[in-house]
Amino acid sequence: MRKQPRQILLGGASTMMLFAFFYTGTAFLSSYGTNPEGLAHSRPTILTLGIIGALVFAVGTIASAILSDRVGRRAVIVASCIVAVPWSLVLFPILDIGTAWSFGLGLSGTLLIVAGIYGPVGAFLPELFATRYRYTGAGMAYNLGALVGGGITPLVAASIIATAGSASIGLLLAGVSLVSLLATFGLPETKGVNLETVAEAEARVPVRS
């Protein structure tokens, strides 16, 4: 934390949208879809649409990882955050159409945006940090994003939907997406960083006792 606090904080903020969308899509929407006071879909319908969404997520993750090797990790994450902002605002109007098809579209679209970050983030975060504390730095950033984006956001969503309506959750997700977008803009592109060269350079630096 003392060595690269900026990378930890911005790296964590850049992943907030990933976790907010993931847990909204997998946990919150499953409950919202089957709740008699929500969309009131049958549980088998939601499970089937969840399987389809998982397949979309898997394909999207592979595609975004390959794309990040070509155009850059940061570029793919930025693009995903940009798409996430308007999608957040239309997600619940789509879901509230009330059909199984609209729920499947909302769920699959949400998980596809998650995949856009999930593919490159495994390379992006470690490449932000110096070799000697790369694992620690990446782990702290990743878990910071998980704590705020995945822990707090779904809890807030569950508490505000009853009082402010489903549209308020879209505004919440859009706000989280903007935070992640700005944080990612504050980080460098890491594609092409030669980690072996960095490791060799650090090995030549004498360690002070």
Automatic annotation (TrEMBL):
Stretches assigned to the Major facilitator superfamily (MFS) profile domain: 1-192
Record carries keyword Transmembrane helix: yes
TM spans (from-to): 7-26, 46-68, 75-95, 101-129, 141-161, 167-187
Molecular function terms, GO-annotated: transmembrane transporter activity
SUPFAM superfamilies named among the record's database cross-references: MFS general substrate transporter
Lipid bilayer topology: Multi-pass membrane protein
PROSITE patterns attached to this UniProt entry: MFS, SUGAR_TRANSPORT_1
Annotated Gene Ontology cellular component terms: plasma membrane
Subcellular location: Cell membrane
Gene3D superfamilies the record matches: MFS general substrate transporter like domains (1.20.1250.20)
InterPro entries linked to this entry: MFS_dom, MFS_sugar_transport-like, MFS_trans_sf, Sugar_transporter_CS
Keywords of this entry: Cell membrane, Membrane, Sugar transport, Transmembrane, Transmembrane helix, Transport
Protein known as: Sugar transporter
Annotated source species: Cryobacterium flavum
